[in-house]
Structures are given as C-alpha cells and as structure tokens.
C-alpha cells in the first residue's frame, strides 16, 4: 500500500525529485550520485531513504514520472485548448520555442534516453505519456472538425498520431544534431496537412 504523505512530506519529496531531475538533465544519470542529490536538495541521507527506500532506483523512477508530467506541463495551457486554427499555431510556436531553448536538456530526452530505466518500467511511463498527449491532440483535431475549420473527412486519430510523431521524431533529431529545423519542418507540415483538401 502506498504511503500517504503530509503536505510537508509531499513538498520535501517533490523538492528531491525536482533537484534530481535537474542534475540528470545537466550531467546525465551516470554522473549523478545520491550525495550529489542530497547536496543540491539540502536533504539528509535518512530523509532521502525515507522517501525512496530503494535509493537511486526508486528516485529515478520518480524522476521519470516527473519528466513525463513536465512534457505535458510545458505545453499547457496551449495543448489543452486546441479549439481553433489560431490556437493550434500558438501551440506550434510554443513547442518550437521550448525545444529550441532546451535542446538535449528537454524532459522528453531525459525520459527516453538518459534515465536508463528497466525496459518494462520505461515503456509503461512513456506509453502513458504518449496516450495522454495523443488524447489532447485528438480533442484538438476533433474541435477543428466540429467547427468546420478542417474537412469532415479528416481521420482524427491518424492526424493526431502524425502530429505527435512529428514532435517526438523532430525532438529526437534535435538532440542528435542540435538542429531545430527538423522539428519545425515536420510539425509545420503535419499541421498544414490538416487543412489540405482530401481527394
């Protein structure tokens, strides 16, 4: 049974997770030890093991969940209100700006490439993230369809999957090359495709 924390306990645990996430983003998981995390979060050894009994393994799992949440949080409120074409374009600009600023320090890169989680746990966390992200995009595509801004024959799920793949694929290429144009081009093309007439 999961332990219920007090408000103070939740704040302490969150401080540890955020501190660890910042270190992993900056230095990579292999270079970050528990003493580094304790130092940056002003946490005692007993405190750290109180919240994360299995030590680094527990903490990295919490960091992974935190980073998955951050992928979504960094796109809000835009991602949650894709009800007009203008708002879709505002979301696109935000995505490009965030990834251009963060480069290989982005939450998505940390989650998928740096944490070194066991395959099953990583797949579960990443799968849940992509499902949530896809749900937002599908609601946005459906809103455009309902308002008549795109054709009634647009396949909502396929379009949302194409857009999501453009972002995640473009972000992967950004990390590999440090070039934002892959993400910018792929996402712009995926969105423009929504408005193209169907044969």
UniProtKB/TrEMBL annotation:
<dbReference type="InterPro" id="IPR001647">
    <property type="entry name" value="HTH_TetR"/>
</dbReference>
<dbReference type="GO" id="GO:0003677">
    <property type="term" value="F:DNA binding"/>
</dbReference>
<dbReference type="InterPro" id="IPR009057">
    <property type="entry name" value="Homeodomain-like_sf"/>
</dbReference>
<keyword id="KW-0238">DNA-binding</keyword>
<protein>
    <submittedName>
        <fullName>TetR family transcriptional regulator</fullName>
    </submittedName>
</protein>
<dbReference type="Pfam" id="PF00440">
    <property type="entry name" value="TetR_N"/>
</dbReference>
<keyword id="KW-0805">Transcription regulation</keyword>
<feature type="domain" description="HTH tetR-type">
    <location>
        <begin position="16"/>
        <end position="63"/>
    </location>
</feature>
<keyword id="KW-0804">Transcription</keyword>
<dbReference type="InterPro" id="IPR036271">
    <property type="entry name" value="Tet_transcr_reg_TetR-rel_C_sf"/>
</dbReference>
